[in-house]
Amino acid sequence: MKNSLMALGAALMLGGVASAQKVAFEEYDLDNGMHVILHKDTSAPTVITSVMYHVGAKDEQPDRTGFAHFFEHLLFEGTQNIKRGEWFKIVTSNGGVNNANTTEDRTYYYEVFPSNSLELGLWMESERLRHPVINQIGVDTQNEVVKEEKRLRYDNSPYGQLLPEVKKHMFKNHPYRWTTIGSMEHLDAAKLEEFQAFNKKFYVPNNAVLVVAGDIDIPQAKKWIQQYFGSIPKGAPVTRQTYTEEPITQTINASFEDPNIQIPMVVAAYRTPSMKTRDARVLDLISTILSDGKSSRLYKKIVDDQKKALQVGAFNYSQEDYGTYILYGLPQAPATSEDLLAEVDAEIVKLQTELISEKEYQKLMNKYENDYVNKNSSVEGIADNLATYYMLYKDVNLINTEIEMYRSITREEIRDIAKKYLNPNQRLVLNYVPAKDKAQN
């Protein structure tokens, strides 16, 4: 089985390359409001059935955080027609793989099967939507699974509290202030009826997009989609509250002690606009200029030349409503966190006052061209992108046109956006340090 799965993965990677430059797709709605996107690629005998639900951590209540991520696990427990513990057995026994993931904005489930198992994949995803079994034994089982995941990824992982600490200081009103994994106390306190109500509210056809991609016969796929999904009742419209954050106008200073580390980290974080905006895409380019690879500005200057940092980086954490631009560094003695932040700020000032060179700009564009091809080089990646562009951007064809948006960004815009968002009075400075008792040992 291991060899067959490896072969399947290789076929997927090879199969999508030919269509990476232009992704053809068809989209339509079922009567119950479910959006459907079909993408045909016959270069490999594989298919992907995936469903993205417009529900994430931001849709939770402040005293019941972690529900969306919890459902990522819970909805593998079984259905009325798939016995508990049988989901993964069915997938693997038919030569497939599956997984799911959750963000603040959405939850995504998918299966990859040989193309002759398309009907099976559609039936399984329709079962997850139509007939999930949400009972106490499933909740109790997954509660322990999620607790272990939290221990591994956050509580006992070096720098595992970095993102939670940044989020809680950057957002005061918006649900982005808590982590996707949420609070274990909230999950422990939740009653079974609360989980069932969450499922009834968000896991409905009119809050979902179904993507079927790969070696498919489109007329047959449509028949099966209608057969398995068409009769699922439409849910009540999902209404969402709008949250507004006041601008940050003076530096927020904070610190956090982590018992899992020995080397401090300094973090500078800036609140930025929605990932749907042009400004957010310019910030993506700025991240690449500053810290993508060993030839990037921050790495070359601070790590290689000055040897003031063991590691330094920048990334634009883009989300549907707001984003967070994060710069971080691990100082190398005798340099301090303050020294490191001063060097990072100097590079930002350069971006704010000087145009990047034509050579650096061309290198940047070449990288984004390459990234674009890679993003659409597998059928699995294409399915994920199709779902994301529909659900979060409301424009599926961005899978083909977003690269043009990046190409149209000018050197002047890069300078101006750096000047607009990356200023000392608009940020959080977090000193992330070893716990005192740990540092003394």
Number of strands: 11
Q: CATH topology of the largest domain, which one?
A: Cytochrome Bc1 Complex, Chain A, domain 1
Give a quick account of the main beta sheet: strands, pairing sense, barrel closure.
6 strands, mixed
How many structural domains in the coordinates?
A: 2
Q: Total helix count?
A: 17
- Integer average pLDDT: 93
SSE string, helices as H and strands as E: HEEEHHEEHHHHHEHEEHHEEHHHHHEH
Strand content: 15-25%
Task: Provide the helix percentage.
Answer: 40-55%
Radius of gyration: 23 Å
In angstroms, what separates the terminal alpha carbons? 48 Å
CATH superfamily of the largest domain: Metalloenzyme, LuxS/M16 peptidase-like
Structural class: alpha+beta
Shape descriptor reads globular
Poorly predicted spans: 1-20
Quick overview:
Helices cover 45% and strands 19% of the residues. By secondary structure, it is of the alpha+beta class.
Mind explaining what this structure looks like?
- With 441 residues, the chain is an alpha+beta fold.
- The protein folds into two domains: 2-229, Cytochrome Bc1 Complex, Chain A, domain 1; 252-440, Cytochrome Bc1 Complex, Chain A, domain 1.
- 45% of the residues lie in helices and 19% in strands.
- The chain is built from 17 helices and eleven strands.
- The protein has helices at 2-15, 67-74, 87-93, 118-130, 136-155, 162-170, 184-189, 192-202, 218-229, 278-291, 297-305, 337-353, 358-375, 379-391, 398-408, 411-421, 436-440, and strands at residues 26-29, 35-40, 46-53, 97-102, 107-114, 208-214, 252-258, 265-273, 309-317, 322-331, 427-434.
- Strand 4 and strand 5 form a beta hairpin.
- The longest helix is centred in the first third of the chain and has 20 residues, at 136-155.
- Mean pLDDT is 93; it is low at 1-20.
- Residues 1-20 form the signal peptide.
- Pfam families: Peptidase_M16, Peptidase_M16_C.
- Belongs to the peptidase M16 family.
